[in-house]
Design a protein that fits this description.
By secondary structure, the protein is an alpha/beta fold. Helices cover 17% and strands 33% of the residues. It has helices spanning 32-37, 80-86, 124-133, 147-150, 201-214, 247-250; strands spanning 9-21, 24-30, 43-48, 59-62, 65-67, 70-75, 93-100, 112-117, 138-144, 160-165, 172-173, 194-198, 217-221, 237-239, 244-246, 253-255. 46% of the residues are buried.
């Protein structure tokens, strides 16, 4: 299945699992159709099902992982909407629109360097699994503020992991931009490495600069505010070289060369 758009549907999905992952909360939803259709890097618009109107709008949630008929979300409860989702209990139902957006292009053959910052690691677990299944060498460079957030690094299977925290409480002290250039050295006769990244804007800007300096391709999943998820409200636009791009339908995954970094 390619990374293009797939017709989305509205589902009511039951929460099958809810567990803490350090500072975050992982929910598993019974969603067989989404599990079948979703591509790494796509997202859902989710809210608690029912008549309650506070919060009014759903929240964009990356497809974190897929396990048989279960679709997993990794939630950072930083606001009213995400806190409400994180507080959902087993048996509760969520209203979910998806899968949405364009995901990662995994057709390359070179080593994959997966770069995540904070809750930006959410879409990278499913991606890492898919890259490994394709036989690609995968190295994860994951950065967090502290040890509590860094617990999420333990979710990643079968890949070499460079773990960094800003306060030095887990892994090495520093930012993901520091070890990244050393991960992009091309071995003679082998395909060039390729970056796949998601995280804060400042991190993604640094990733784009490093990719350009090292002459490698980089795909980034942009984290923007969204209201509709289907391109109608134009609330998620970001600048491209010649025109604004709608993150929800033209992304959320973009080649860094297709964006204007300010």
């Amino acid at each position: 299945m390619d990374a293009g758009l797939i017709p989305a549907k509205l589902f009511e999905c039951q929460v099958a699992e809810s567990r803490p992952v350090g500072a975050y909360r992982q929910l598993a939803l019974v969603a067989p159709e989404i599990a079948y259709l979703a591509h790494p890097g796509q997202f859902l618009m989710a809210r608690l099902a029912g008549p309650a109107l506070d919060p009014l709008l759903p929240r964009p949630m990356c497809v974190h992982d897929i396990d048989s008929d279960l679709v997993k979300l990794l939630i950072d409860p930083v606001g009213k909407g995400t806190a409400a989702l994180a507080e959902a209990e087993v048996g509760d139902r969520l209203s979910v629109l998806g899968p949405l957006g364009r995901g990662f292009d995994m057709e390359g053959e070179g080593p994959a360097v997966v770069v995540g910052g904070g809750i930006g690691v959410s879409p990278l677990l499913l991606l890492t699994r898919a890259l490994l299944q394709r036989g690609r060498e995968v190295r994860c460079v994951l950065g967090f503020r502290n040890r509590s957030q860094a617990v999420a690094a333990g979710l990643f299977p079968g890949a070499a992991i460079d773990l960094l925290t800003e306060d030095g409480s887990a892994g090495r002290t520093g930012l993901v931009s520091e070890p990244l250039p050393g991960c992009l050295v091309r071995e003679e006769g082998n395909p060039a490495p390729e970056i796949f990244a998601c995280g804060p804007d400042a991190m993604l800007k640094a990733v784009a600069r490093i990719a350009a300096d090292c002459g490698v391709r980089a795909q980034v999943s942009m984290d923007t505010h969204m209201a509709c998820g289907i391109g109608s409200c134009q609330g998620c636009v970001i600048p491209g070289p010649e025109a604004y791009r709608k993150t929800c339908i033209e992304g959320p995954v973009f080649d860094t060369r297709d964006l204007k970094w300010q």
